[in-house]
Amino acid sequence: MKRLLIIGILMMPFLIQAQTFTIKSSFALSKWTGDGLDIDHENRTGFSFGLYYGTSLTDNLILNFGSRYISNGTIQRFSESLDVFNVSFHDLLVVKTSNLDIPILAQYMLNDRVYLLAGPYASFLLSEETTFTYTECIDSFCTGEKEKLDFDDVLESNSIGVELGIGAMVRKGLLIEINYLKELSSVIDQDDPVQNQSLMFTLGYSF
Fold first, then answer.
1. Does the structure show a pLDDT above 80 at 52?
2. Which residue from 119, 128, 185, 118 is spatially nearest to 158, judged by alpha carbons?
3. How many Å separate Cα 205 from the centre of its chain?
4. Which long-range CB contacts under 8 A does 161-164 form with residues at least 24 apart?
5. Which fold has domain 19-206?
6. How far apart are CA 52 and CA 124, in angstroms?
7. Which pLDDT score, from 0 to 100, does residue 67 have?
8. Which residues pair with 72 in a beta bridge?
9. What does the buried/exposed string (b/e) look like for 166-183 if buried means 16 or more CB atoms within 10 Å of the residue's CB?
10. For residues 72 and 30, is the Cβ–Cβ distance under 8 A?
11. Could you tell me the pTM of the whole model?
């Protein structure tokens, strides 16, 4: 017992040195893709922030466990024109979602600064806000209406995905990353899958 205690005390500095905490904040571009969509969607801007715990497995490999809040969603536009009467119709659907992601990422150091990221994540829906705007225009005169839709029964409450990224240590503690997120399960409860994908530009600080 004493030997184990002595070994633990001697190894403690190395264990502490091999552990890091990182705070990350991101600008995100997200949209829905998949066979379940009749119209291609556009990116919606959002943001994320989270806390990560990393532990070194080898000199070049670090395993990161994180908890991340992300605001994402999608935008769908549809327009139709009747040239004979100079009439046009415009539909705009905006879905805003807030999720809690739990990523587990392997970080491989290519050198002292540049690294690659890869791993799965679980995503849990916290809230959603969906609006639909209909506009009808005759020449330059337009009328329309905007209403809120309830997507609570349509959206899945949780999903899984994969994250890939590349990053660099700019200076001691400060890092930048580009991260790509792709959900593997459908975000909508239907036969044809619809997945959320996000591109994030990340700034972080490790300590």
1. yes
2. 185
3. 19
4. 161/120, 161/121, 161/123, 161/185, 161/195, 161/196, 162/118, 162/119, 162/120, 162/121, 163/103, 163/105, 163/117, 163/118, 163/119, 163/120, 163/121, 164/117, 164/118
5. Porin (2.40.160)
6. 17
7. 97
8. 97
9. ebebeeeeebebebebeb
10. yes
11. 0.85
Structure tokens at 20: 């890091």
Q: What is the pLDDT of residue 172?
A: 87
Alpha-carbon gap, residue 117 to 184, rounded angstroms: 18
- Taking the C-alpha atoms of residue 167 and residue 177, their distance in angstroms, rounded to an integer, is 4
- In tens, the pLDDT along 133-143 reads 999 988 878 88
Neighbouring C-beta atoms of residue 23, cutoff 10 Å: 13
Q: Which residue has the tokens 């990116």?
A: 43
Name residue 144's amino acid.
G
What DSSP line would sit under 130-144, residue for residue?
Answer: EEEEEEEEETTEEEE
Q: How confident is the model at residue 153 (pLDDT cuts 50, 70, 90)?
A: confident
Tell me: pLDDT of 83 over 80: no
Q: What are phi and psi of 15, to 5 degrees?
A: -65, -45
**Residue pair 166/116 in contact by the 8 Å Cβ criterion:** yes
- At residue 197, what are phi and psi to the nearest 5 degrees? -130, 145
Tokens of 43: 């990116």
Whole-number Å distance between alpha carbons of 100 and 103: 10
